[in-house]
Structures are given as C-alpha cells and as structure tokens.
Amino acid sequence: PRRYPPAETPRRRYRAGAQSGPMAASQMSHILRTNEYSFGVHELDGRNASPVLGFDSNLLPSNVPSEDRRSAATCLQSRGMLFGVFDGHAGYACAQAVSERLFYYIAVSLLPLKTLMDIEEAVENERPVFPVLQWHKHPNDYVSTDAGKLYFSSLRTYWQELIELHAGEHHKDIGAALVGAFQRLDSDISLEAQVELGDPLSHYTPLRVAISGCTACVAHVDGLDLHVANLGDSRAVLGVQNGNGTWSALTVSNDHNAQNPEELERVRLEHPVAEEKTVVKHDRLLGLLMPFRAFGDIKFKWSGELLSRVLDARPDILSANEYARMLPANYHTPPYLTAEPEVTSHRLRPQDKFLVLATDGLWDLMHRQNVVQVVGEHLTGIHWQKPVSGTSFTLGQMHSLLAERKSRASTAFEDHNTATHLIRHALGSDGFGGLDPRRLSRMLSLPQELARMYRDDITVTVIQLNTPIIEAQCKAAA
C-alpha cells in the first residue's frame, strides 16, 4: 500500500518509549499467527512426486483493512502449482479482484485446446464445468461475490478467443501464457469499468477495482520449471544451500520502480523527449506512483477524455476515493503504466531449497540474504548467530549480549509456520541474528494511525521444494 502526493511518508525507526508494559509472548504470537496458513502437497501412491513439498503463508496487516492479498492453487487440468502475492494501493479493491481472478486466466491460458472446447461445450449446454483450480485458502481470506457473474462472463470470452486463436494448436510457452493472462485480465478490468451496467451498485465494484491498483508477483512451478511473473515491487527470492551448508539468495524477479535503471529507461523511452523531466518525477511515475507496472490504476492508462467521462458519471466514486479525483499533471501521452509482467524462468536444482514470495512490506525491513538465512535456519533447525567481531564491546556488554542470546534461544524456533517466523524476525530483529522481544512488542502494539509510518502490510509465502524429487528429475533429464 502506498500514499500519494505530495509524497509518501518514509518508514521510520521506532524509538519511542513504551507507553505501556510490553506485550506478553502469547499475545504477540496470537497477533502474528492470526492469518497463518500451511499446506502440504499430498503424496501420490505413497510418494510425493511433486517438486513442491508444501508452503507456509502469512499476512500481517498495517492498514485496516489490509491492502495486501495472497493466493495459492493447484492446477487440476494441467500440471503445476501457482502462488501469488498482491500489494494493493488506493484501497484493496484491485488486489482483491486480481487475487481471485488471475489464476483462472493463467490456468485457462495453459489448457490444451480440447480441454477448452470441453469447458465451452459444458457451459453452452448448462452442464457442470469441471474445476480447473484447487484453491488453498485461509478461512480469513475474503472472497467477494458481488461481481461473480461479470467475472465469469469475461473469463468465458477469453477462453472462447483462445479456442479461435489456437485453431487446433496449443502453445506450450508458459512465459507467453503468463504474459497473456496478466494483460488480458488488466484489459478486462479496464473494459468492465467502462460498461454502464444499468444497476449503479453493480457498476460500483468494477469501477472501484479499476481506480485502485495492485502489484503482483506470481510463481508457477511445474516439474523442474519455475516461472515468476512480476509486476511492480513485490519480490521472489530462491533460497540456495551451498555445498558447505551456508545459504545464498538468488533473486528471480526484478523490481519495477525508479531504483531499477533499465525500468526507468524503458518508461522514458516510451514517451516523447519533451516529457523526459516529467514522466518520472521524485522517483514516481508522473510524480505520483512508485511502481512502474501495476494492475488497475486507470488514471495512468486511460485517455483524459475517457477518464473525465466515466468519472463524471459516478461522482460518488470520487467522494469515496480521493485518489481518483484529479487527473495527473503533465498527462499528455497515456498510457504511462503497463500490466505486462516481466517473466523470469529458472530450472530447479537440488541446491534450490525454497522460494520466498513477499510484498515490499517485508523487503523494506529485511535484505534478501537475511531473509534466506532466517528461513534456511528455520527449515533446517540450525541457527547461526551473526558474529559480533568488529564491534567494540566492554566485557560487561559482551556478557549481557550472550545472556540475552541464551535466553532467546528457546524461542528462536517457536513458530511452526516459516512465514510467521520470518515476519517475527523482520519486526523484532536485534541486529545480531536474534530476536528482541521488546522491539517486537513495540512494533505489534503501534496504534493504527502510527503503524503505517513504521511498517507496511506484510504478506509472505514460503514454498518448500522437494529435494529428492528434484534430484531424481535432474538425473532423468541429464
């Protein structure tokens, strides 16, 4: 989630003294574990033939309601599993819609022609349609119902067009399927917001979705093939275990913001030279938006005339969302924002042990190497403290530090859920590889109006990979 002009409030280091006593350990754990979810992949014939052992996921809100969303599903009519994290801004509506819809678009894109035709025949004859996804959801994960018919109609139009386009030939390029699914969903979000459905209440949801926006980071795992489709500044990082047991972080996505020189150059080249100084200002798109790629956000995509016409017809939307009120300055050559993801492919190896997908709320607090270290230690049960050499300590300070470490050792692995464990460390790190309960208590007890100044919504999914299966498949492919 992001604030808009004149500038986003930078995250602060929390140094204020506790206004009340520290939270009890049980209370902190209750807050951290409220939205945690774990799933283990079922064995087939007594043996798990999947490269994925299972996953742990968690979401810790800062905003109320949270603007982050997450999804995980098994593709039932094709091979593979899908995982995604979605970071909303200007509200949660777009992130909610994308988290529910995107995997269907991806699954349909990957289906063989015959399967698509069977689905269309079943719908045409009003027979039940066999499922294409098995969802893995936490009971707290909200599912909207007010636009279900519209969403299904758009999805059906998409698979009908795929049937016509493929003309009997199914493409197996997963990267192209991911790109096509992302772009088609964003196009549908845009079109749905333009159609006057007669019922103002029915039209409210599509327009609200399109006005808000969200980034997305999605992983598709099929055998040894890992594909990550990223849009914005959420991130995917592989945890790699080296031969000597140490851990390395391999980033398998790129951020789409002003800190990425290639992305900055792409945006500038897509617009006239006369806009070079205005298209990105203060590290933001048109001085307003931090991510350079996102779903929704029609005020960076539509023509000025279309924006005015649609929004003038629904003034109630403007009163409910200040973000939509004003056309950006220097808005000359839209679209400025794209929903085309950058797809990264990676062939899984035995040393690849897990994949972390997380919104920027985590990466703002932890470096990717620290993330991999914390997760790797949690999965293996081996905890390596950060050395204290190079820092000046008195003997008394050293004794105090060692005593604190000893007292914290018993709580180092108290979370069964790896995503929860990671969020606990992100908020409560002592800077030396351990946990500071007092810091964790302060970060979790911040009032809502202060919480956003110190941290963002944090959503994490940790996918644990199945090393024996990956080893066997690597040998078979050699």
UniProtKB/TrEMBL annotation:
Its EC number is 3.1.3.43. The keyword Cytoplasm does not apply. Mitochondrial enzyme that catalyzes the dephosphorylation and concomitant reactivation of the alpha subunit of the E1 component of the pyruvate dehydrogenase complex (PDC), thereby stimulating the conversion of pyruvate into acetyl-CoA. Acts as a crucial regulator of T cell metabolism and function, with a particular focus on T-helper Th17. The keyword Hydrolase applies. This is [Pyruvate dehydrogenase [acetyl-transferring]]-phosphatase 2, mitochondrial. GO terms for molecular function: [pyruvate dehydrogenase (acetyl-transferring)]-phosphatase activity; metal ion binding. The lineage of its organism: Eukaryota, Metazoa, Chordata, Craniata, Vertebrata. One of its GO terms (cellular component) is mitochondrion. It is found in: Mitochondrion. Pfam families: PP2C. It catalyses: O-phospho-L-seryl-[pyruvate dehydrogenase E1 alpha subunit] + H2O = L-seryl-[pyruvate dehydrogenase E1 alpha subunit] + phosphate. Keywords: Hydrolase, Magnesium, Manganese, Metal-binding, Mitochondrion, Protein phosphatase, Transit peptide. SUPFAM superfamilies: PP2C-like. Belongs to the PP2C family. InterPro entries: PP2C, PP2C_BS, PPM-type-like_dom_sf, PPM-type_phosphatase-like_dom. Residues 1-25 are annotated as: Disordered. It comes from Lepisosteus oculatus (Spotted gar). Coiled coil: none annotated. Residues 52-465 form the PPM-type phosphatase domain. Its cofactor is Mg(2+).
